[in-house]
Amino acid sequence: MPQGDKSAYTDKQKRKAEHIEEGYEDRGVSHEEAERRAWATVNKDDGGGNKSGSGRGTHTDNPAAHKGGKKGGEASANRPASERSASAKKAAETRKKNEERARH
After folding, report:
1. Which residues fall within 8 angstroms of residue 17, CB to CB, at 6 or more apart?
2. What CA–CA distance (Å, rounded) separates 60 from 27?
3. In whole angstroms, what is the distance from residue 80 CA to residue 41 CA?
4. What is the pLDDT of residues 60-91, one digit of tens each?
5. Is residue 20 a contact partner of residue 43, using CB atoms and an 8 Å limit?
6. Which residues contact 51 (CB under 8 A, 6 or more apart)?
7. 8-42 per-position pLDDT tens digit
8. Domain residues of the chain, as ranges?
9. Which of 38, 63, 65, 90 could join 17 in a cystine, given CB atoms 3.0 to 4.6 angstroms apart?
10. How far apart are CA 104 and CA 98, in angstroms?
11. 67 vs 58: CA distance, rounded Å
12. Nearest in space to 44 (alpha carbons), one of 26, 67, 27
């Protein structure tokens, strides 16, 4: 199999790489670099190509998909305390209203 041949990858792995690639391109990474990173991520997650068919792939823990918590916290950390406080108060109020509604 020549280098760069994707025939050993399942359709799902190809879709996954395409989705990851689009995400990088949306963030301004060049097409070639985005494609390279996407396939590196698929290889990291799935251990390379799998033969298609039920039960013929290997189970993985998807290590690249476990970065959400780290990335998600950044947005709220960059907001001013007053804005976070206002959001917290609004959320508490909503929970209280929903709880009262559930009781009736």
Report:
1. 9, 35, 38, 39, 41, 42
2. 27
3. 34
4. 667 777 766 666 677 777 888 899 899 999 99
5. no
6. 8, 10, 57
7. 888 888 999 999 999 999 999 999 999 999 999 98
8. 11-103
9. 38
10. 10
11. 21
12. 67
